[in-house]
Amino acid sequence: MSRLEPERAHRAALRCLALAQSAPAGLALLRRFAAPDDPRLHVSRFGVKFAHPIGAAAGMDKDGEAVSALLAIGFASVEVGTVTPKPQPGNPPPRVWRLRDEAALINRLGFPSDGAAAVARRLKARKGPGVVGVNLSANRSTPPERAPHDCAAALESVAGAADYAVLNVSSPNTPGLRNLQGRGALAAILKAMRSVRSGLALLVKLSPDVTDRELDEALSGIHEAHGDGVVVSNTTTSGVRGGGLSGPPLRARANGLARKIYRKCGRSLPIIGVGGVGTVQDVVERMKAGASLVQLYTAFVYEGPALPGRLARGLSEFMRREGVHRMEDLVGVDA
Question: Which DSSP state fits 21?
């Protein structure tokens, strides 16, 4: 599939996974990739229990088409999305590019989405164990003052089909979206989502490009609205003309932001670390910087379906070798 245009390759891979998950024999075959359960890897955060810290990041399965398959191959969690209240096409193609020499991607997708109702129907039909989060945002056509209504509506649609929710106000591919990371705007959206009373933990995905002042603003908004955690981080626009960059070039920036947030908030605000995670060393480094969980996407594009199980087995071996009794003991030790 590496010879196909990137977005076509992605669609083809999702279709294969969706086909495999449609039959018990297909799921059984996919589970051969997964690692055995190791209690030392278990992580509990914001009221949700994870079999290990490695999850699939938002963007991998935007519309919830292959969740059961992704969980079967060894991800402990899958974050679906970004999902918008109403269907929308996103930006016109081409909108995904490979940077092979850096094992990185640039995307300017702009939230193509089947809409919250369609995603909720698919998630309710999923099979097998594992955690599912839903990454939510407003429609592109929604004016800023209506964003709280949009995001609350999206949450209401998916609430019965997910284990946690993430508010995405940090994508660089929707004009004006990152302006909603300010304290007042962010708190207003989170409070509107809280009013749905879904019972789901509510996290916020932050940009890696925030200044220290902008970070303090965002954290204040999250605190004011009693947010349950942060996802750090989205793609970066640094060094990119149009679109967001993901993969190894983002690693140092995402690590630094996780460390900065952990120093400010400690374990009171759990962190899911994203950006440049692709090896056991990356997972350990991100958790030592303050992340309780990690997610990956770009590395999966380059490494394939064996990656999550291989990382989980590698973490078990790391803990045995280093005498670490619980994965959670690593969180923040270098922050």
Answer: H
**246 prior amide bond cis, ω within 30:** no
Q: Can you give the pLDDT at residue 171?
A: 86
Q: What is the pLDDT of residue 259?
A: 97
Return the pLDDT at 174: 84
Tokens 């995905």, located at residue: 205
Going through the chain in order, the beta strands assigned E by DSSP cover 43-45, 48-50, 54-56, 77-83, 96-99, 104-107, 131-136, 164-168, 201-206, 229-232, 244-246, 271-274, 293-296
In this structure, which amino acid lies at residue 16?
C
Region at 64 (left for phi over 0; alpha for psi -120 to 50; beta for the rest)? left
Q: Please give the positions annotated as active site.
A: 171
Q: Environment class of residue 303 by beta-carbon count within 10 Å: exposed (0-12), middle (13-18) or buried (19+)?
A: middle
Span 68-91, pLDDT tens digits: 999 999 999 999 999 999 999 999
b/e 17-29 (16+ beta carbons within 10 angstroms → b): bbebbeeeebbee
Mean pLDDT of the chain: 94
DSSP letters of 202-213? EEEEE-TT--HH
Asked whether 237 and 108 are in contact (CB, 8 A), the reply is no
**The tokens of 322 are what?**
């280093």
Q: Give CA–CA dist 70/68, Å, rounded.
A: 6
Taken in order of first residue, the domains within the chain and their CATH numbers are: 6-330 (3.20.20.70)
| CA 244/CA 263 separation, integer angstroms | 27
How many other β-carbons are positioned within 10 Å of the β-carbon of residue 44? Answer: 11
**Residue pair 219/262 in contact by the 8 Å Cβ criterion:** no
Q: Report d(CA 63, CA 109) in Å as an integer.
A: 14
Q: What is the pLDDT of residue 198?
A: 80
Whether the predicted pLDDT of 2 surpasses 80: no
Angle at the Cα of 83 (from 309 to 291), degrees rounded to 5?
45
Burial of 279 (0-12, 13-18, 19+ CB in 10 A): middle
